[in-house]
Amino acid sequence: MNCDSNERRSSRSIYYVNFFEEAKRRWMVLGVLTTVALAVLAPQVGAPGGLLHAEYLSYLPLTYIYYKAGKSRTSKSRVRLYTLTVLHANVGALVVCVVTVSAMSTTLDRRVIEGAILASTGRPCAWLPVSLLSCNTVPTLAAVNYAVSLLLSPLTHYFLCGQIPIPPLGGVVFTSVATLAPFALGHYTSKPESESWSRKACGLAVLYAECCALLRDAEGSLYVTDVIATLLLAVWCVVGTAASGALYARGGLLSAAEARALLLVATPKATHIGWSDVCFPAGMSRLPAVFMAPAQALLLAAVFTTERTDQTNKSDQRILPR
Questions:
Q1: Which residues does the chain have with pLDDT short of 70?
Q2: Whose C-alpha in 59, 161, 162, 214 is 20 to 30 A from the C-alpha of 67?
Q3: Is 14 contained in some domain?
Q4: The domain spanning residue 107 has which CATH number?
């Protein structure tokens, strides 16, 4: 009798899940979900001109993210990684989006289709991969990808809408200084750090501000079918772009660690359109970006913030091909 009860207890213990430990491991995923929920419930609070004046306060967490990234150990990698990352972010993402839009064209509004395609050609999002820093090559890779996009993104917009949006020189200079100055300060004045929960928490603050701004810009009369279809479109575009990056590792072009770095840098797109408003008017065409912002953050948080993934990345960093 005792043997039977012991066997039942042991069999039940195999399937025991410590929810507290699982929440600790995946706190970033829960944080993304909570951040998006808060933005949906009260977008006016975090939108520009709102109670928090996020158009100014958001620079504080951004500065801290780049400062902490500067404290991490940086390393170079093969030219092939930089080339494939740039091509995947600026060409591959557009191809994936066009294929997805073609498959869903009968259920989507024309403005949503235009907004999704233009969002896929936007500038890369640098703060998200840096806040989730899991590979020593990420800062350099993100910088190169952003610099090349300043040339490729206007050309892509010209091909799509016949106009070349020129980024204002003042904005480019301000972004460069606001990014490079804290990064250099952290790199030259502090000891190296490889992991920081505070950097990820600041990433959640920036995500909240961006979601609030996008929700306010996309306000208007929307049908439930349009919202659901746009949500599916955004999710499939982000997942398709991320999943196609794994083909480089399977094809032997990149190592597993390099493919993860490419996934982290090439997947997210900047949701703040800024100087490309000429091709991206406010309204319903902004709706895809509303869903892409949390979708890309949630996907990357789920992939890169568990303990098992962190341990794998640390071991892979030592064997990155030079």
A1: 1-19, 22-23, 73-76, 134-135, 165-172, 190-196, 217-226, 271-284, 305-322
A2: 214
A3: no
A4: 1.20.1530.20
Q: Which range of residues forms the domain containing residue 185?
A: 54-312
pLDDT digits (tens, 9 = 90+) for 251-300: 888 888 888 888 888 888 876 655 455 565 556 677 777 788 888 888 88
- 164-190: pLDDT as tens digits: 766 666 666 777 788 888 888 887 876
Q: Give the contacts of 116 (CB within 8 A, at least 6 positions apart).
A: 97, 100, 101, 108, 230, 233, 234, 237, 288
What is the count of structural domains for the chain?
1
